[in-house]
Design a protein that fits this description.
The complex is a heterodimer of chains A (209) and B (448). Chain A is built from 9 helices and 5 strands; from the N terminus they run βαβαααβαβααβαα. Chain A is α/β, with parallel strands linked by helices. Chain A has one domain: Rossmann fold (3-Layer(aba) Sandwich). Chain A has a 5-stranded parallel beta sheet with strand order 2-3-1-4-5, with helices on both faces. In chain A, helix 1 packs across helix 9 and helix 2 packs across helix 4. Chain A starts with 6 loop residues before the first strand and ends with a helix. About 11% of the residues of chain A have low confidence. Chain B has 15 helices and no strands. The model of chain B has no long low-confidence stretch (mean pLDDT 90). The chains are: A alpha/beta (209), B mainly alpha (448). Chains A and B meet through helix 4 and helix 7 of A and helix 1, helix 2, helix 3, helix 7 and helix 10 of B.
Chain lengths: 209, 448
């Protein structure tokens, strides 16, 4: 670990306004803001295309695990080290996160950053939830859905994928309160006020006035 | 940083050299174990007799099944461990190691007990006759008693690779193969312990290799070592291991089913000697096919990376190179099989009937052997670029969709020859299916 910075890891339910809160926090603390941007960074550093990372972003599908098939040979069980799979992509992504954190203040949204940076002393882990109505309307506005059910399905599907992804790579349950320093429902105070509260929490955590 | 450099090289270094570099260790390990199989069978055939080789052939599905369980744990564990090591999460990695040991012991033990209890009925189901059953039983009792060792040995080897010691894993493989050959000579040829001796040689050499592996893993200086408190099974670790291991497991079970079916067909239409001949022809084909499997594994990271980096010309070059080298080596095997089938069969037996059957069988079995190479490489190619459904479809089509029905129908018209011909026929069928799929798929790249 080099210098200490302010590293904020944001977990978020779909449609809880995590992105907007993250952006505002980044402004407050003069931090780099990474959501999907970490993918393009990982792509640049690994020489792989960004599309590849996007395809595997925050979900682990059942069929993909067949990528682990080792040639299918019975008694050798041989598997090439340095092989290429979703796990390799995750490794590139986490290396990118580690390097970004070394460079200065950061806000990371999702991508298991809390786990990847667990050995740093300068992190604060926050999870943002919101009630379903709030989330549905957020998702409808952002994704351009006209149908509530459609938005609901989108949320359910996306979150079960996120949870599975998180569980596979971290061994922990996604969104479980004890894994975070602060859990907050953004629909109670609204995005602006919630952000202010989090900002205050972070300030106190790092001993800033 | 080292690791990253190696990965970036996948996109820059000349493809031919990369393929060589990645495929060589795999080729060495695989060819070595198939050579060992040949030598094992040759000694059993020459010293113990032709019935013994038929009895041995009956036990193959057993070995497949045992390997299926071993691979399920081994592949799953090694994948999970390398992910955790990548994250420098040594604590979880060690728990994975401990859980692997426990899982292997439990599964190995259960497999042993269940199979020992039902040994005779299972062997009958696999196609054993009154003549071959004693040989198969003698062999299997020893193998099953050592089953826990076998599982642990394969499991630990997989973990060694994941722990960044692929070289050690290769040494372990080469050691077992070499030791096995020495012990087979001693036990079977010298002491005349019969087919039991061959089984004992297998188990002993694996035990020795396992001791060495355990010694490696008990070194406290290693990041990953065995210690107290890591052996208790943890539900989510086991779930991750099995979740990944299930696909290699199913692949192995499939090949197990195929061999059971083929053995039964051979017994039905040609008697015990035909099973012996099938086992001889198969081990001949395997030596060359293992080379192809090695090439396949070497091409996986190269094709995978360059596909991901959208360097399509490099990806395609690797594909063509792999197809070319796989096909050339199979052409050598094919040439040998067509020109010298008698001499090949002679390695395994002196029995005139078995000799004749095997020589005849080898010729038919490997009639279109050289086209199998491109089929296997292309199937693997689809897997490398994440077209998993196509890949699974292609590999299953050869075995389940083509071979099984053909091996069932053809003998109705041509008896024993029908069983033999079902193999080149299914090879040809899947070959004819694979290339159009590739052609259809590659059009997309040519447009780019």
């Amino acid at each position: 670990m080099n210098d200490t910075h302010i590293i904020i890891n944001l977990g978020r339910q779909l449609g809880s306004g995590g992105h907007d809160i993250g952006r505002m926090l980044a402004l407050d603390f003069k931090a780099q803001y990474y959501d999907r941007a970490i993918l393009s960074r990982a792509a640049k550093e690994s020489g792989l295309s960004e599309r590849m990372f996007e395809q595997h972003d925050e979900h682990k599908s059942f069929l993909r695990s067949f990528l682990h098939l080792p040639g299918g040979v019975a008694n050798s069980g041989y598997q090439q080290s340095g092989g290429f799979s979703q796990d390799a992509l995750f490794k590139f992504q986490s290396d990118a996160i580690l390097r970004a954190a070394d460079e200065g203040n950061c806000v990371f949204v999702g991508r298991c950053a809390d786990y990847i940076l667990r050995n740093r002393v300068d992190t604060v882990n926050i999870f943002i939830t919101a009630n379903m109505d709030f989330r549905v309307s957020q998702v409808m506005a952002k994704q351009g859905f006209t149908d509530r059910d459609e938005a609901l399905r989108f949320i359910e599907q996306g979150e079960s994928q996120r949870a599975e992804y998180y569980k596979y790579y971290t061994g922990k349950k996604w969104g479980q309160a004890e894994n975070y320093d602060l859990c907050i429902d953004s629909s109670v105070l609204g995005l602006m006020e919630t952000e202010k509260l989090i900002s205050q929490f972070v300030r106190k955590r790092f001993g800033l006035s | 940083m080292d690791n990253r450099q190696a990965t970036l090289e996948l996109g820059t270094k000349p493809v031919g050299r990369l393929l060589w570099q990645y495929a060589l260790p795999a080729i060495v390990a695989m060819t070595a174990s198939s050579l060992y199989n040949i030598i094992d069978r040759a000694f059993i055939g020459q010293v113990v007799g032709p019935e013994a080789i038929a009895g041995l052939g009956i036990t193959f599905p057993f070995m497949n099944l045992s390997a299926a369980f071993g691979a399920a744990v081994g592949v799953g564990a090694s994948t999970c461990i390398s992910v955790k090591l990548g994250q420098k999460d040594y604590e979880t990695a060690e728990h994975l190691l401990g859980n692997t040991v426990t899982l292997n012991l439990i599964i190995g033990f259960l497999f042993m007990v269940v199979c020992l209890i039902f040994l005779d009925p299972i062997l009958r189901f696999f196609g054993a006759s009154d003549v071959t059953l004693p040989y198969a039983r003698q062999f299997m009792v020893v193998i099953l008693l050592g089953n826990m060792v076998t599982h642990m040995y394969f499991g630990m080897n997989a973990v060694l690779r994941a722990a960044g010691k692929p070289r050690h894993a290769m040494y372990a493989t080469l050691f077992t193969v070499g030791m096995n050959i020495l012990l087979v000579i001693a036990f079977v040829w010298w002491f005349r312990w019969g087919i039991r001796g061959a089984a004992l040689a297998t188990i002993s050499s694996q035990s020795m290799a396992l001791c060495w592996q355990m010694w490696l893993f008990s070194d406290k200086k290693e990041l990953l070592h065995l210690k107290r408190g890591i052996y208790k099974l943890k539900a989510d670790l086991v779930r991750n291991i099995i979740g990944i291991g299930i696909s290699p497991f199913l692949m192995n079970v499939t090949s197990c089913i195929i061999v059971i079916f083929m053995n039964n067909q051979f017994v039905r239409y040609g008697g015990d000697m035909a099973v012996g001949a099938y086992s001889i022809a198969n081990s001949m084909a395997m030596v060359f096919f293992m080379f192809v499997m090695g090439v396949n594994q070497g091409m996986q990271p190269i094709v995978g990376y360059n596909y991901g980096a959208e360097k399509y010309p490099r990806m395609l070059r690797c594909l063509w190179l792999a197809i070319a080298s796989a096909t050339s080596i199979l052409l050598v095997g094919w040439g040998l099989a067509m020109l010298f089938p008698n001499q090949i069969a002679r390695i395994f037996t002196t029995d005139p009937l078995l000799l004749e059957l095997s020589a005849h069988g080898i010729r038919i079995d490997m009639l279109v052997f050289f086209i199998v190479g491109s089929q296997a490489v292309i199937t693997n190619f689809f897997q490398c670029i994440g077209k998993v459904k196509i890949s699974i479809f292609l590999s299953l089509s050869r075995q389940l969709l083509m071979l099984l029905p053909l091996a069932y129908v053809l003998p109705m018209f041509w008896q024993l020859d029908g069983v033999w011909y079902s193999m080149p026929a299914s090879d040809f069928g899947s070959f004819a299916m694979t290339w159009p799929l590739l052609w259809w798929y590659l059009r997309k790249f040519n447009k780019k």
